[in-house]
Amino acid sequence: MRQKIVAGNWKMNTTVPEGVQLAKDVVAAAAAVPADVKLIVATPFTHLCPVAEVVKGTRVSLSAENCADKEKGAYTGEVSAAMLASAGCEYTILGHSERRQYYGETDAKLVEKVKLALANGLKVILCVGENLDEREAGKHFDVCEAQIKNVLYNFSAEEMASIVIAYEPVWAIGTGKTATAEQAQEIHAFIRKVVADKFGAEVAEQTSILYGGSCKPSNAHELFAQKDIDGGLIGGASLKAEDFIGIALGY
Ligand code: PEP
Predict the structure, then answer these.
(1) pTM above the 0.70 mark?
(2) CA 13, CA 74: separation in Å to the nearest integer?
(3) Which atom of ligand 1 is nearest to the CA of 214?
(4) Segment (H or E) for 5
(5) Is the CB of 234 inside a 6 Å radius of any atom of ligand 1?
(6) What confidence tens digit (pLDDT) does each residue in 152-197 have?
(7) How many CB atoms lie within 10 A of CB 1?
(8) Measured between alpha carbons, how far is 221 from 218 in angstroms, rounded to an integer?
(9) How many domains does the chain have?
(10) Counting C-beta atoms within 10 Å of the first and last residue's C-beta, which end of the chain has fewer, N or C?
(11) Which domain holds residue 213?
(12) Of all protein residues, whose CA lies closest to atom 4 belonging to ligand 1?
């Protein structure tokens, strides 16, 4: 059985006290969600330590939103994978389209980041997905395949056990436009095949593939009911505990 996951990506939102309160609200509401659904909150770096205290001993796991592509040293402003692990993170998101688009995140850098995250005991939520032009040109399969091959094909089948893939069509992120359940299922099945081609059917069957892009309580159920959709990476709707938990109740 693949792990079902609903992860909230808070992005650059909330002050530290607001984030701590949001984490408390998520923890308080989490009991309603079926026990086999893993709940994760991915917070800004500044929030990790206080939120780690809030989620300690609860069913909610902590994630960062990014990590450095260098181990340590003179890289002013960067935060290393070792720092994230020591702050209480279990996961880090890597390769989010906003980082690819605004901060020059390349697949080559992502290979280094994934290596360091895994070496420090973190699990990785690796984001892939096409932009609107690529979707309209019918290139979405090629784009996702290349992103997965360029990054994940550098790792082993054993390491894949610590990697979650999030398919996030860029045209659906924060736009209110959601991929239809059919569109999402089609590409999730394709992504699973790309994983199977390298690592075998068994690893592909165990790999959780999340959908992200304007997921909300009203559409989560239909998306999560698809055979190859194992949960969601949630942006805007994760900033209200009620909506975030409402999405997780979509299972
Ligand atoms: C995201 O950025 O990961 C995301 C899915 O955002 P939203 O839910 O706001 O579209």
Answers:
(1) yes
(2) 28
(3) 10
(4) strand 4-9
(5) yes
(6) 999 999 999 999 999 999 999 988 888 899 999 999 999 999 999 9
(7) 7
(8) 7
(9) 1
(10) N
(11) 4-248
(12) 235
